User: Fold this.
Amino acid sequence: MRFLVLPVLLALVGVLSGCGAAGTGQAPASAMTGQEHTPYRLSDTALTDTDGEPFSLATDADKPLTLVFYGYTQCPDECPLVMSSLTAALTRLDDTDREKIDVVFVTTDPARDTTEVLEKYLERYDDDFIGLTGDLKDIVTLAESMRLYIGEADRLPSGGYDLGVHDTHVSAVTGGEARVVWSMNTSPKQFADDIHHLLEEENAA
Assistant:
């Protein structure tokens, strides 16, 4: 599985890395590991959560901060790395900050990742994590509104699956908008420090 991101996001990250905070309203590059960017309004597409209920990231993610990752339960490497880092990051937060955060795992393999499969998978990390599944076209629509890329899943002649590629970024969502993105190599400490910074910004707003 390769690491891809839409050209728009790559161009944006390049611009941000060359800019300071003055006149931008954004934190200096050194303040956070994640890249703050122009807010992207999320599609109001509703998927299905692990309770079998409709869930829209645009309207139902009502915590001050929601961390969103797209992956699949049979992913052998990148997905477990990111999910483990997020889980470890949350253990670094105090109870007050932890209660202000949701983590949402959106499957890129809905043909196999049913609500039951997602629930069992997420129990390995944290019982409070939210899993979402649904039609692949709806998942792609949601991801595109966040400037993230999801490849098509195709059956191989051998009978297996080729999931193509999917984005391995983690996105921060507040108020129905994606505002910050982290790479898959972000450490638990870096996640925790950035989360604390973002929550302080929310409190000050």
In short: Residues 89 and 188 are 4 Å apart (CA to CA).
